[in-house]
Amino acid sequence: MGALAWLLIPLVAAVGAGLWSSWANRTRRARSDGPELDGYARFREAMERPRTGA
Questions:
Q1: Residue 5: how many CB atoms within 10 A of its CB?
Q2: What is the pLDDT of residues 6-40, one digit of tens each?
Q3: What is the pTM of this model?
Q4: Residues 28, 18, 9: CA angle, nearest 5 degrees
Q5: Pick from 40, 8, 10: nearest CA to 48
Q6: Rounded-to-integer distance, Cα 44 and Cα 52, Å
Q7: What is the 3-state secondary structure (H, E, C) of 9-52?
């Protein structure tokens, strides 16, 4: 019985990892990278501007 428990632990972990990965990727298909890239472009522009003030 103990050996069966040790075999079930990785199986349950693999099923849990599969469920988590499908849940984590559910929004990536519906959302594009547009807003993130726009924010990064604004960040780069702000970093390239010369500093004003002291």
A1: 8
A2: 999 999 999 999 999 998 887 655 566 777 888 89
A3: 0.47
A4: 155
A5: 40
A6: 16
A7: HHHHHHHHHHHHHHHHCCCCCCCCCHHHHHHHHHHHHHHHCCCC
Residues in the chain: 54
Tokens standing for residue 13 = 């972990």
The CB-side HSE value for 35 (13 A sphere, CA atoms) comes to 3
Locate tokens 């594009």: which residue?
A: 32
| Alpha carbon distances (Å) from 9 to 14, 19, 23, 38 | 9, 15, 21, 44
